[in-house]
Amino acid sequence: MFEMLSLGTIIVLVVAIIVIGVLYNIYVKVIQKKNKVKEAMGGVDVQLKKRYDLIPNILTIANKFMEHERGLIEDITKLRTQAASIRFDANTISEKMNLDNQIANKMGQLMVNVENYPQLKSDQTMVQAMQTYSEVEEHIAAARRFYNSAVNDLNNAVEIFPSSMFAGMLGITAYP
What we know:
The protein is an all-alpha fold. Helix content is 83%, strand content 0%.
């Protein structure tokens, strides 16, 4: 069969196969990068849920001692409820991160205020809750670094030719 094909036809077929292989490889890499971002978003979401689950325990303990901080505790509770109700996906990233930053700021204020209450600062349950909260914050930071790295890779693929062609055809856009 190959004897009937001319050298020119064989070269065209080989080049076509190579081009198709290269294009398929680009397509696969764009999809892998998109899925890596989704994985990273899931990791951040898991860590944020850990924080949201820990907050009520901290507030319950603090509430016993910090009557003057009632407004701060109510603000944190309201923000936590809002943030926990939002599903973390491509459409809600900005809103979720904004609420999360507000929670982090309010929790930082609460932790500073805990220092002004010696009984609370020495309460073993509160000490343990604060240590757990610090660990969760470290995990959130690590998950965010992973997310930012994955988003950077995807955004490069979305913006740089030729992978940008596939991203456009697949409706994949840059993530914040």
